[in-house]
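Need a sequence for this fold. Nothing fancy.
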């Protein structure tokens, strides 16, 4: 968010991805917290309303997980996230939106680790998702451009195979 050129590029690419993969939508929803700024920028670019989904209900007031114009219920919405690892927090937001009456078209994110568990979780939730980049592409680019050594590439690939067991 601190770099205008990169911020603009990500906004434009997410906007293009949404138009290509989801077609017309009536609202953009950001996942708290890192999906909020990107979602707001994309909503602005598309001229659409913006809402966001908290990770848990507010402990005061209405106790809602969804913040924004409540008259948007029923609208076709795309959820914006920064990063997908297992998909748990993203799908929690999707479920909150669905429970509130929104028609969730799917989710767009900047990056995914590409874990099989995430693919399976999104499939089970019947929620298509698309990302701008992924772990494999990042490692390949970093290696090809000498940001990391070939030995680093191998270590990072091994981490990707079993991240939960890494360092044990």
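Here you go.
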């Amino acid at each position: 968010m601190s770099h205008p050129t990169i911020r603009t590029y990500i906004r434009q690419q997410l906007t293009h991805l949404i138009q290509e993969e989801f077609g017309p939508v009536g609202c953009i929803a950001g996942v708290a917290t890192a999906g909020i700024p990107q979602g707001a920028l994309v909503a602005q670019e598309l001229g659409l309303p913006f809402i966001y989904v908290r990770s848990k209900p507010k402990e005061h007031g209405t106790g809602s997980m969804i913040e924004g114009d409540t008259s948007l219920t029923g609208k076709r919405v795309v959820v914006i996230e920064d990063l997908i690892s297992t998909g748990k927090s993203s799908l929690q937001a999707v479920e909150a939106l669905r429970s509130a009456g929104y028609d969730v078209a799917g989710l767009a994110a900047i990056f995914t680790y590409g874990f099989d568990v995430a693919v399976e979780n999104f499939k089970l939730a019947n929620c298509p998702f698309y990302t701008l980049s992924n772990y494999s592409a990042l490692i390949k680019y970093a290696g090809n451009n000498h940001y990391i050594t070939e030995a680093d590439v191998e270590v990072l690939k091994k981490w990707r195979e079993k991240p939960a067991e890494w360092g044990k």
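For context: The chain has a mean pLDDT of 94.
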